[in-house]
Amino acid sequence: MGGEHAGKIRKTISYNGHCRVDATGFSGGIWLYWRPEIVNVVPVYEHSQFITVEVSRTGGVPWFFTAVYASPDPTNRRELWSELENFAHTNGCPWILARDFNETRSLSKRHGEFAGLSHTWARGNSPETRQSTRLDRALCNTELGSYYDNASVRHLPAFQSDHCPLLIALNGFTPLSSVQKPFRFQAAWMTHELFSTFIEENWPKYGRFPSRLNALSTSLQNWNENVFGNIFRKKKSLMARIEGCQKKPSTVKEKRLIALEATLRRGLDKILEQEEIYWDTIMECVTSARMQVLWNGEPTELFTPTRGVRQGDPLSSYLFVMCLEKLQQAIDTEFYAGKWRPILVCRNGPAINNLFFADDMVLFGEATVE
Q1: Which of 172, 169, 165 is nearest to 150 (CA)?
Q2: Does the global pTM surpass 0.70?
């Protein structure tokens, strides 16, 4: 897969920086994508089996990264090792190499150098045909280790490939705190065969619209938990169970365990389809907004905004409106709780805690020693 199809995928995931080595038939192929607004990446050398780039950020130490996809042919692989060895001798900067080396080593050696699954590649759907080993790895030189002594690599579960993804964190992994998210309508609910019936039976027939909507939201939360199932929690649970199956060494895997992993993968595929509907609905709302402006007192024709408030920003302007609305709600919450004290324009004037403009804001509050 490459060429125009690779370009379409790049636009879909919004990674504007890229370099790649296209596959030859069904073998090889390396894609390397990044976001130029976050990190500066300069391609240094491209080879049929690897890509080397220089990575830097403002105020940071530049380092080299080599994405490897080694040939299964030992003769071609010797050429790869020769190229990497030459670069190592001439390079005195921090350097990381990662991905598929198509080489196996004893799993008993340096077992603490990664977290996650021991085997990064597997194939076969029965105990008789099942094969697995560690082909993918991340390596670094001593220079990088001296700058990033907490650098870590994690082998993630494989879901859509026979290879596990590698997650590299130069500053180590920070555990994510659990956040209670507010209730939101999920477009994936509409795929459930009983959803329409549920709405008809639970929509209050009396009262003001906001109160009826609040009553329905309470019923929807219960329905989501007990009938539909929270897709994000289901996804997390399925991924954890698949990882548990894959952690079992291939030498002791039973037919029942392999069948369970296949069943869990099918369940995860359905969850991912529902999640895709969820995100597609959000992007449809963001990218399909149309508006009019007054020109000499007359409304213009409807048009679709293609640039955000900031010059050159490809995001829809509506995203900024959504962010400001959320920030306003957070400020109001603190204000009504007495934690945010605004200022008075005059003795009997209105209290002001913020002013929002198109591309700027001013926040007002009482300054205290605390």
Answers
A1: 172
A2: no
